[in-house]
Each structure stands twice: as C-alpha cells, then as structure tokens.
Amino acid sequence: MVKKIVAVMLLVLFGLHYKFWSDKDGIPQYWRLKEAIALQEEENLKLRERNDRLLSDVRNLKEGLVSIETRARRDLGMVREGETFYQFVDY
Which residue ranges does the entry give as Cytoplasmic-facing topology (predicted)? Predict the structure, then answer.
C-alpha cells in the first residue's frame, strides 16, 4: 500500500514538473517575461532621460531670454535689428 502511495506521489510530482518546465505558462514564459521586462526598463530609462532633457529645455525657455534668442537664431534664422547676416556657400 505504501509503495502505491509513493508511486502515485512520484507520478504526480513528475507530472507537475513536466508541466512546469514544458508548458507555455511555465518556465519558458517566465524567461520571456523577464527579458521583456528588461527591455521595457531600458526603454523607460531612455524615455525618462529624454523627458528630463525636454523639461530642462522648457525651464530654460520660461526663465531666460538668452535661450529664446539662441533658438530663434538657430532654428528660425532670425537676426537682431542692425545686424547683418552673411551666409557663405561652398561650391
């Protein structure tokens, strides 16, 4: 009788381990999710850094005229009154 119980328990244990290691929701899924989490954390870090840079730009634009002038000159090609703009073109 004890041998039958031990045999059944071993069979159940083997079945559970088989399902745990081979089923799509077992260890393989755990590994896939772990990798996906690592990739997402990496992406989140990049986005957090980008957000910090953008927030810094917003603060600079709100607080300083130098920042606004720099952007106007660089992005819009604006010049101050009385200035002469020279552009050299290489051929």
Answer: 1-4
Query: What is the rounded distance in angstroms from the CA atom of residue 13 to the CA atom of residue 10?
Result: 5
- Residue 57 CB partners (closer than 8 Å, separation 6+): 67
Pick the more confident residue, 51 or 75: 51
For residue 26, the 8-state DSSP code is: S
pTM for the whole structure: 0.54
Q: How far is CA 18 from the centre of its chain?
A: 35
Q: Within a domain: residue 50?
A: yes
Q: Enumerate residues 6+ apart whose C-beta is below 8 A from 3.
A: none
